[in-house]
Amino acid sequence: MDPVDREKTTFTASGQGLWQFKVMPFGLCNAPATFERLMETVLRGLSPEACLIYLDDIIIVGLDFEEHLSNHRKVLEKLKQANLKLNPAKCNLFRREVSYLGHIISAEGVRTDPRKVAAVKEWSHPRNVHELRSFLGLCTYYRRFVKGFFLIARQLHRLTEHKRPFVWSEECEVAFTSLK
């Protein structure tokens, strides 16, 4: 974090005086966007065929081992130049298949992560609009894997409309079960 911006993170700690962060803490409203911009800047020049970035998740790809190794070197060099460090315990290197942002990515393509899909399958019946919106949000994340998603979810989306009474109908039950 730029020293001139540290004062913006000042806080007190039970009579211990004033404290400031030296690095960007998560929880600040702009921290994710700022960190994403930082990572995009650090890895600028590397194509999506070399690596994909989402916050602190970087997936490095290659068509064969040599290209993959070359892309690893490029990414690591850029991180080193920016004085960014990796946590070895969180690194999965040279995998043919990785879990990334709720998906399994491999040479065969992209599919849903069974562990994440289990959360949808185990979801209990929504009792109110808030719970229904949470369920729909998770389902919408995986909509590309559900043929006719919007037709199936339409009845559930209607229940989330402003000032609409939350009445769980047979159509809602069918849609809910279909999405699960």
Automatic annotation (TrEMBL):
<dbReference type="InterPro" id="IPR043128">
    <property type="entry name" value="Rev_trsase/Diguanyl_cyclase"/>
</dbReference>
<feature type="domain" description="Reverse transcriptase">
    <location>
        <begin position="1"/>
        <end position="105"/>
    </location>
</feature>
<dbReference type="GO" id="GO:0003964">
    <property type="term" value="F:RNA-directed DNA polymerase activity"/>
</dbReference>
<protein>
    <recommendedName>
        <fullName>RNA-directed DNA polymerase</fullName>
        <ecNumber>2.7.7.49</ecNumber>
    </recommendedName>
</protein>
<dbReference type="InterPro" id="IPR000477">
    <property type="entry name" value="RT_dom"/>
</dbReference>
<dbReference type="InterPro" id="IPR043502">
    <property type="entry name" value="DNA/RNA_pol_sf"/>
</dbReference>
<dbReference type="Pfam" id="PF00078">
    <property type="entry name" value="RVT_1"/>
</dbReference>
<dbReference type="InterPro" id="IPR051320">
    <property type="entry name" value="Viral_Replic_Matur_Polypro"/>
</dbReference>
